Amino acid sequence: MKKILPHIVLILIGIMFIFPFLWLLSTSFKSGTDASALSLNLIPKKINWENYKEIFVKVPFLRYCINTLFLAIIGIVGQMLTSSMVAYSLSGINWWGKKVLFPIILSTILLPYQVTMIPVYLIYNKLHLVGTYWPLIIPYFLASAINIFLMRQFFITLPTSLMEAASIDGASHFTIYTKIILPLSKPVLAAVSVFTFLNVWSDFLGPLIYINNQSMFTVSLGLKSFIGEHSVEWNLIMAASAVTTIPIIIIFFFAQKQFIEGITLTGIKG
After folding, report:
1. What is the pLDDT of residue 270?
2. Which SS3 state, helix, strand or coil, does residue 129 take?
3. 54: Cβ–Cβ under 8 A, 6 or more apart, which residues?
4. Which domain holds residue 5?
């Protein structure tokens, strides 16, 4: 019983977590009437495959997916480049201000996005960037506090003897960073990539504020297209949501080993 009971509890908790996803899939195959009904039928009365076709016919949903994928790739590149540089400067380089700067960077995590939303919007508006992708791209090239923390914690777990040996051989900090640190940091880079991809893919408020051209809409704004003034097409929203989860599942499936390793190793040293 000591072995069976924990497994039973974990299975029940797992079912609780997976039930919303099963409900999403079930509703995506229902008709509009059945999807709007108050019944809790998990199995559709009739499987309606037309929902998945209609989401690409009613709105340019494929275009929205391509737009979001474009922003996600740029965001991943920006975060891996800038966050890793800042993290290396806080872990591999000895300079007087890093012990003061690191807590300040961490404190910005506590600052909600809604607090800076209006001032940042005014800045981009003054720069005439509203209505373009630049307000969604630039922040990912300015490093992220949480990603800096993850990378910095991982970098300090790397053997210092490698960096010291390279430094004795005349290697610069840039050489150590590119030739030693980054090749050994695949797990944390994978973790940062997954987090960044999820942030870009699920971001709704940013595109809603800065994008006003329908051809530039992202996936999150595309889902809003199925919400009318007086009705909500739940079956189409669920079908579109199911499609948007496919890239997330694929990314995590291929990067899960490095992702878990990167998250685990970031807490070894303080």
Report:
1. 47
2. coil
3. 236, 239
4. 1-48
At 215, is the secondary structure helix, strand, or coil?
helix
Q: What is the CATH number of the domain that holds 164?
A: 1.10.3720.10
d(CA 266, CA 155): 8
To which residue do tokens 């010291």 refer?
A: 164
- Cα 89 to Cα 98: distance, rounded to the nearest angstrom: 8
Quote the CA–CA distance of 61 and 54 in Å, as a whole number: 10
Mean pLDDT by groups of 10 residues along the chain of 270 residues: 87 89 87 75 81 88 92 94 92 85 89 89 94 94 91 87 85 89 88 90 92 90 78 84 85 75 57
Token code pair at residue 176: 């150590």
- Are 32 and 101 found together in one domain? no
**How many angstroms separate the CA atoms of 222 and 104, rounded?**
37
90, 162, 179, 254 from 159: Cα distances, Å: 16, 6, 14, 27
| pTM of the predicted structure, to 2 decimals | 0.84
Q: Measure the CA–CA gap between 76 and 71, rounded to whole angstroms.
A: 9
Show the CA angle centred on residue 226, arms to residues 222 and 227, nearest 5°: 115
Tell me, yes or no, whether 98 lies in a domain: yes
What's the distance, CA 241 to chain centroid? 16
Burial 184-206 (b: 16+ CB within 10 A, else e): bbebbbbbbbbbbbebbbebeeb
CA-based diameter of the chain, in Å?
72
Eight-state DSSP code of residue 223? H
* Cα–Cα distance for residue pair 192/150, rounded to 1 Å: 8
Give backbone dihedrals phi and psi of 227, rounded to 5 degrees, phi first: -105, 110
In a domain, 270, yes or no: no
